[in-house]
Amino acid sequence: xxxxxxxxxxxxxxDPVRVIDSHTEGEPTRVVIEGxxxxxxxxxxxxxxxxxxxxxEFRRAVACEPRGHEAIVGALLLEPSDPSFAAGVIFFNNVGxxxxxxxxxxxxxxxxxxxxxxxxxSHRLETSIGAITAHLGENGLVSVENVxxxxxxxxxxxxxxxxxxxxxxxxxxxxxxxxxEDHGLDLASTDIDELRSHALSIRRALESAAIHGIHVxxxxxxxxxxxxDHVELFDRPTRTDCDSRNFVLCPGGEFDRSPCxxxxxxxxxxxxxxxxxxxxxxxxxESIIGSRFTGRYHEKDGMIIPxxxxxxxxxxxxxxxxxxxxxxxxxxxxx
Length: 335
Ligand code: PYC
What we know:
335 residues, binds pyrrole-2-carboxylate, disordered N terminus, alpha+beta, 19% helix, single chain
């Protein structure tokens, strides 16, 4: 961490930024309501690219300390490209943008309801990797129909410092995941630092072995390598109403307090590929802090479409202020 106290770092024209905070099964979401940078009038893909490449200071100012913290997922609300969407959204965190974030979509949905912009029913959200649908129930629970998900490889052997040889699956659930059952660890909420450190070692081993997710462009068929930036470990559940318990390492090094909606989608894709879960059959995923999502899927074009259900609660409606002389107006960068 560093800052030159004499340096004036306020240079972005960072006007006050109004945010609404919520948590989804323990995992925080910060929705930017006012004060976001102008991303032009292009497509959501173009706006996401502009935000990713040109607005790191804004992203860090909102997501990182001292106004935020490392576990926050931000959601930038945008005018959607057509009125069939309730909103466009870009998800981001302490290190960059996220392809998708299901707990964040649940947080966005309760935030839009809190603002009186939507009521119970189904609402489409536009993201750079496709449309998702959030259903807000009368009971306050939100079900998100996620993007198509699939398992790319199974039985991937990986030599990991501190764990030895492990086996995992690579799956896409809106983000890339390496899913591991045979890690030999107890997923205890008292051991989070140790779990984090092992999950980071797994991610380093994936990088060293040049193991990637492969994105296939649906139109051109072109393949691009994408980093596997989420690691998901599984264990037996402690709750009697769950099928499994997980620990999820997020891209910025934090762990997901919720069971991770894209991670649960990746898990459903693996269960489907192994013939262990039928379409429509519920799967209840417990998080490392004991919260719960339920997931189901239906099949479409050789992939699965997961629907993930959970609750979210508003925690704050606030305005972030940026003093011209604040050396950490653009967030604290951890090196
Ligand atoms: O719920 O998809 C999710 C998610 C991704 C990163 C943190 N939460």
